[in-house]
């Protein structure tokens, strides 16, 4: 029985193809096309050849069929390899253009390339079921209006629960100005903190203003000390109702919300924002590449909804983390996988990622697309000449350890910020030292502000998403953005010292990541079908931030101070936050082989109050969890 191999030409011009096989194979076992074959336009499939899968292909021997097609002045090789087995043969495909290729693939694959004529093309190879053996269909198309042709890999690292002012409010002090602002003609100053900013509350400081501070103060809480690295502690309110109070009165409600939620703690610490000296890693990256002073989280609320927006363009009507039950809606990972584009989720720690937790119904059995940070580092270290399947995927989503086991690396208050700095340095260094870093776009984001102070009011007029344009629990139609969060664009093609804002009338938010991925890979039709959220459709992409035509130097990060050397892990009495609870509940679902029911989830939440509870919970699950 044969496999048929086809090419679909979606270009405006006709192509021609010539095919050779090595070693030679009798025409009894394949169609042996002679000369060139015309590939007409219009997207219809043209048969290149057929090849027998179980006769003529001897055990353990390998045949390689190479079809050569000239596209845009570049040489494109469409390759099929058969390896004989006892009963038939195994098949793999590979696409190579001007010496760079996908590597041999037993699954669908694709390659985007800039041809000699300067235009961007996309080639896919798909296995199509047809009887006993799959057929192979190659398809070539031009990416119209393609953005970021110099980028082959996008990496997004999403941290937790800090506002822009809280972490990066002081990076341009006084009269210091960025080297470049985008768009050109926008304010030449960075919209950071000024010492005159304040909040008031009648119960704090005798009702007098509590001014924002540039942060290295420890705070006394009874007989205990809240270290400068843990501010604010306890954790501020982050649910929708808390955020509504915080942003009221022209961003004047942070102090009131904190003292109301956490009576007895020094409420003034909510106005303490980190200094550059405290955070040498993220501060260096913000001033060495491009930082936005007008990037807003997508929802004025919590982690799950905001991470939902960066991965789906929606929160499926959820406004808070609420029930921890998995969502079953389309994601950007589904779009990439459905279009032969590679993707991975990498996370630190021994447990599953938060992404898998949130979409456990979809990804419970998927171990192919979820891996450890050590795998990310090894993949970054591959040589530039390595085939595509040995390098980073087209899209990588990276997550820190959320502190269920070990230190929280996400910056989430009230945890120590230093492990977050160390983890950010680990990911940056892996990319900075990569032989192919010039082809990587690295985006550092924070999902939401987490109740920490910021002075800029979130804009109104956000496009309600689909699905779930109306909150299922609050009187809210998702027509307002959330509070500003840090957003740093790192690339060889970014002008050092850039500060950027939206280049359209629509503010930047997490769906700008999706708009960038869509336009970068020419996925407008796929997004319209699978991710039709109006929020994505309205969002500006990020191509305008990459302004350089010559690759820039990536700086070596400063050596952290000695205070970073020894960082104790949380003790058993420390409360678990909602993310830590949800990851533990997700781990229970993985151990059970199915997501927990609502009743089981509710019972687990009641048990999981402290880190000691979490460790005991995991001890019982450990024999049933996959090892990493």
UniProtKB/TrEMBL annotation:
It holds the Pfam family Phosphoesterase. PANTHER family: NON-SPECIFIC PHOSPHOLIPASE C1, NON-SPECIFIC PHOSPHOLIPASE C4-RELATED. GO terms for molecular function: phosphoric ester hydrolase activity. This is Phosphoesterase. InterPro entries: Alkaline_phosphatase_core_sf, Phosphoesterase. Keywords: Hydrolase. It comes from the Bacteria. Gene3D superfamilies: Alkaline Phosphatase, subunit A. GO terms for biological process: phospholipid catabolic process.
């Amino acid at each position: 029985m044969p496999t048929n191999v086809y090419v679909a030409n979606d270009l405006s011009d006709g192509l021609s193809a010539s095919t050779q096989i090595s070693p030679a194979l009798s025409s009894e076992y394949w169609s042996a096309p002679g000369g060139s074959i015309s590939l007409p336009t219009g997207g219809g499939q043209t048969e290149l050849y057929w090849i027998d899968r179980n006769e003529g292909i001897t055990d353990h021997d390998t045949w390689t069929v190479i079809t050569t097609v000239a596209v845009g002045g570049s040489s494109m090789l469409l390759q099929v390899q058969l390896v004989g087995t006892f009963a038939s043969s195994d098949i793999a495909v590979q696409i190579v253009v001007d010496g760079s290729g996908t590597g041999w693939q037993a699954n669908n694959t694709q390659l985007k390339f800039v041809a000699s004529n300067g235009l961007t093309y996309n080639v896919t190879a798909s296995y199509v079921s047809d009887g006993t053996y799959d057929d192979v269909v190659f398809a070539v198309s031009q990416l119209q209006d393609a953005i970021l042709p110099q980028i082959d890999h996008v990496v997004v690292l999403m941290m937790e629960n800090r506002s822009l002012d809280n972490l990066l409010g002081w990076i341009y002090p006084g009269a210091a100005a960025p080297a470049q602002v985008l768009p050109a003609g926008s304010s030449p100053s960075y919209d950071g903190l000024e010492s005159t900013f304040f909040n008031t509350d009648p119960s704090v400081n005798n009702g007098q203003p509590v001014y924002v501070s540039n942060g290295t103060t420890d705070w006394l809480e009874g007989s205990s000390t809240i270290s400068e690295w843990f501010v604010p502690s306890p954790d501020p309110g982050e649910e929708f109702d808390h955020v509504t109070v915080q942003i009221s009165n022209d961003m004047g409600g942070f102090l009131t919300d904190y003292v109301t939620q956490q009576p007895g703690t020094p409420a003034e610490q909510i106005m303490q924002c980190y200094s550059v000296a405290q955070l040498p890693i993220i501060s260096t990256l913000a001033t060495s590449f491009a930082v936005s002073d007008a990037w807003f989280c997508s929802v004025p609320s919590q982690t799950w909804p905001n991470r939902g927006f960066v991965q789906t363009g929606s929160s499926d009507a959820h406004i808070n983390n609420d029930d921890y039950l998995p969502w079953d809606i389309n994601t950007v990972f589904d779009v990439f996988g459905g279009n032969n584009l590679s993707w991975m989720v990498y996370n630190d720690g021994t447990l599953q990622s938060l992404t898998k937790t949130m979409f456990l119904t979809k990804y419970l059995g998927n171990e192919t697309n979820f891996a450890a940070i050590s795998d990310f580092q090894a993949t970054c270290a591959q040589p530039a000449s390595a085939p595509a399947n040995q390098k980073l995927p087209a899209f990588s989503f990276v997550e820190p350890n959320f502190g269920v086991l070990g230190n929280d690396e996400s910056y989430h208050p009230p945890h120590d910020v230093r492990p977050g700095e160390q983890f950010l340095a680990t990911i940056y260094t892996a990319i900075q030292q990569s032989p192919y870093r010039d082809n990587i776009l690295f985006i550092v984001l924070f999902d939401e502000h987490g109740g920490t102070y910021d002075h800029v009011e979130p804009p109104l007029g956000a496009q309600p998403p689909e699905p779930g344009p109306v909150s299922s629990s609050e009187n809210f139609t998702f027509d307002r953005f959330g509070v500003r969060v840090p957003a740093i664009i790192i690339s060889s093609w970014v002008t050092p010292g850039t500060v950027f804002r939206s280049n359209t009338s629509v503010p930047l938010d997490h769906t700008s990541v999706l708009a960038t991925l869509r336009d970068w890979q020419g996925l407008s039709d796929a997004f319209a079908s699978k991710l039709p959220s109006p929020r994505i459709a309205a969002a500006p992409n990020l191509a305008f931030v990459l302004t350089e035509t010559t690759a820039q130097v990536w700086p070596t990060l400063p050596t952290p101070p000695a205070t970073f050397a020894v960082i104790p892990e949380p003790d058993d009495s420390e409360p678990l936050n909602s993310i830590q609870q949800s990851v533990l509940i997700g781990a229970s679902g993985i151990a059970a082989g199915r997501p927990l029911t609502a009743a089981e989830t509710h019972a687990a939440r009641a048990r999981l109050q402290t880190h000691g509870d979490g460790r005991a919970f995991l001890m019982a699950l450990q024999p049933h969890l996959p090892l990493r």
